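Quick one, tokens below. Sequence please?
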């Protein structure tokens, strides 16, 4: 199946480069290009691509607002949005993640990771570059923790393991490989964790892992929070 993509970036050279990278893959098709947020919203609404690849900073309506309108809370039929940026984590990046972005990459992530993120988003999965996840947690580390939601039913040991890998930016396929379980089993565990936490996406799972001190920016595993 061909994955239909709209690419939105205000820099002509960057946009052309993204289109060229995606164009060499026979199962990927760029069906539209936008140089600003309003055009991205218009194209995405009219064309309903499988994935919208959007820059975080664009004139007019920025990538955060584009993401919120197409994939945010209350959207009846949310679109798969992958956000890309040249910037490290800042308020725009955090805003995009909370707005419902299914994937997040820095523009220097490389073609392979970009294609992986698009495939993951199209399949209902998500991919957040591991370095982005670490920086996200590092940013939170400098702030007082929020009051995270506590599940009525505690997470099982296996759910904690799956949560650890989700928070580290692993895809479902990578989690299945690391834990030696089937892909359907991974999806079932993630769905269970999301239900218990009332989370909308994997980004919220990663944030919850930090908020409950299960994961720190300098650690690679999830562990029970301190008493």
């Amino acid at each position: 199946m061909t994955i239909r993509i709209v690419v939105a970036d205000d820099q002509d050279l960057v946009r052309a480069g993204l289109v060229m990278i995606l164009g060499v893959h026979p199962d990927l098709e760029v069906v539209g290009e936008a140089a600003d947020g309003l055009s991205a919203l218009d194209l995405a609404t009219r064309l309903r691509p499988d994935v919208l690849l959007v820059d975080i900073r664009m004139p007019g309506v920025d990538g955060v607002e584009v993401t919120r309108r197409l994939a945010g809370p209350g959207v009846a039929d949310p679109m798969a949005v992958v956000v890309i940026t040249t910037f490290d984590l800042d308020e725009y990046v955090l805003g995009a993640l909370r707005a419902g972005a299914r994937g997040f990459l820095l523009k220097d992530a490389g073609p392979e990771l970009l294609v992986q993120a698009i495939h993951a988003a199209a399949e209902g999965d998500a991919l957040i570059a591991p370095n982005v996840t670490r920086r996200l947690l590092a940013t939170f580390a400098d702030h007082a923790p929020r009051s995270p939601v506590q599940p009525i039913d505690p997470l099982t040991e296996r759910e904690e393991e799956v949560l650890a890998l989700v928070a580290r930016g692993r895809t479902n396929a990578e989690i299945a490989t690391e834990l030696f379980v089937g892909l359907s089993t991974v999806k079932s565990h993630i769905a269970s964790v999301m239900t218990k936490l009332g989370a909308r996406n994997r980004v919220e799972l990663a944030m919850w892992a930090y908020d409950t001190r299960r994961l720190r920016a300098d650690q690679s595993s999830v562990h029970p929070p301190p008493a």
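The longest helix spans residues 183-197. Confidence is low (pLDDT under 50) at residues 217-227.
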